[in-house]
Design goal:
Length: 122
Amino acid sequence: MVRDEIGSISRQSVYDTLTVLTDRGVLRRIQPSGPAALFEARTGDNHHHLVCRQCGRVVDTDCATGETPCLVPVDDGDFVVDEAEVTYRGLCPQCRAAGPGAGADALRVEGPERTDNPTTHR
């Protein structure tokens, strides 16, 4: 998308920019499934993610209990917990409608540039 918009840009420049934006709190790096990282602009809250097992689509979902953190560990090991990450896995409506085996890996792209949900995870 960046190349379409501005022309030539190296992959390393994109990664470096994502790192700077993440370090400054503009983006949040998530890794809900496998080695591919995703970057989202929704930061500063304690939301979670829904991941489709079939197509890999990732969707934001608000905290289950509305508190920060959403989950309290049984044994916190004397940590002061300030964040919880929860990943819900299942089948998205489109994959359920398509039936078993349809569309598997259709939206999977290796690397941080993965774009499963064009509205939130680019």
